[in-house]
Amino acid sequence: MTTPQINIDDPEADATGPDGLMYYRGELFTGEMVEEYDDGRIVSRMAYVDGMEDGPSLGFHADGTPQSAGVAARNRAVGEWREWHPDGTIKQIDVYDDTGRLCARRKWDAAGVLLQDVTQ
Questions:
Q1: Ranges under pLDDT 50 in the chain
Q2: Which SUPFAM superfamilies would you find in this protein's record (predicted)?
Q3: Reduced to 3 states, what is the DSSP secondary structure of residue 43?
Q4: Which residues constitute the domain of residue 52?
Q5: Is the pTM of this model over 0.85?
Q6: How many domains does the chain have?
């Protein structure tokens, strides 16, 4: 069985309610949500379970190189999340605990100079 995939711009996709959950055609969505650039290339790809972001989350620069990667669990960032500059160098690493609390952040500029190193 294939995982349903919908586009974030689909008029039947809705996350505007007060519960913050993703619905598709009036039902809690389970599957993959994608966002696309105008030419059809993928901007982002996120997994949902029962209307909550739950699973891998990936973002891409316009040229297709990775922009971000992490995992969500029940609408919360968990574990290590990474972001990259367009040239592929690391931009930021955030580490979240199992409750979604930010525990550490390291951030670099495009030249690789460490700008921020915080552990909470």
A1: none
A2: Histone H3 K4-specific methyltransferase SET7/9 N-terminal domain
A3: strand
A4: 5-119
A5: yes
A6: 1
